Amino acid sequence: MITEEKRAQRRAHIADTAMRLFAERGFDAVTVNEVAEAAGVVKATLFGYFPTKESLVLHVLDDDLARVVAERVPGQTPLRALREHYHGAVAEPAGSYVPELRAMVRVIQRSPALVAGVSRFRGEQAEALVKALVEAGEPDGIRVRLMAAHIVTAVSTVQETFFQRLTDGMTPLAAGRLVGGDLDLAFDLLERAFGEFSEFGGDER
C-alpha cells in the first residue's frame, strides 16, 4: 500500500513534469498522455491526482478559504482568521521555488484555457466561501455574496501582484517584504467595508 509520503512525492513529480513540458512547449500544445508518459505513470494514475489537465497548473492556486473560516479558533472572526492564514503562508521563504512560480505565471498568461480556468476557480472559491460564511452566522443573501466576492478578489489580487513582481525580476526578499503590507491593506479595506461582519460570530463558537 502506498504511503501518504509516497503519494505526495508522486503528485509533486507529476506536477513538476507537467510544468516543465508546459513551460517548454505551451499548455495547449502538450497532451495529458504526454505528461503521463514523461512522468512514468499511466493516464488513470495521473487523473487520480489531478482530475483535469488545467489542475496540473492551477493546483498551485488552490487555497481553501472556506476551510479556514470553518476551522477558525473560538472567538476569532472570519476576516481575522483569513488575515492570519495568509500572513502565515507568506512567512515561508519564496526563494527556493521562484523559478517554478515564474514559469507558472508565464504558462497561465499564454493559455486562454488556463486564464478561463483561473476565473472559474475563483468563482467556485467564492461559492464555497459563501456557504462557510453563512454557517458562521452571516444571513444568506446579496450581502454575504458581496463579502465572499470581495474577499476572493482581494486575496487573488495580492497573490497575482506577488507573482507578477517575481516574474518581472524582483527578488523574493523584496517581493516578500511588500506582500505583507499588501495583505494588511486588503484586509483593512475589507474590515472597513464589512465592519459589522468582522465583529459578528467571534463569541458564538
TrEMBL record:
Sample GO molecular function, one term: DNA-binding transcription factor activity
Entry keyword set: DNA-binding, Transcription, Transcription regulation
PROSITE patterns, per database record: HTH_TETR_2
Return the annotated DNA-binding positions. Answer: 31-50
Per the record, the coiled-coil ranges are none
Ranges for the HTH tetR-type domain?
Answer: 8-68
Concerning InterPro entries, the annotation shows: Homeodomain-like_sf, HTH-type_TetR-like_transc_reg, HTH_TetR
Q: Which domain of life is it from?
A: Bacteria
One Pfam family linked to the record: TetR_N
Write the protein's name: AcrR family transcriptional regulator
Q: Tell me which species this is from.
A: Streptosporangium saharense
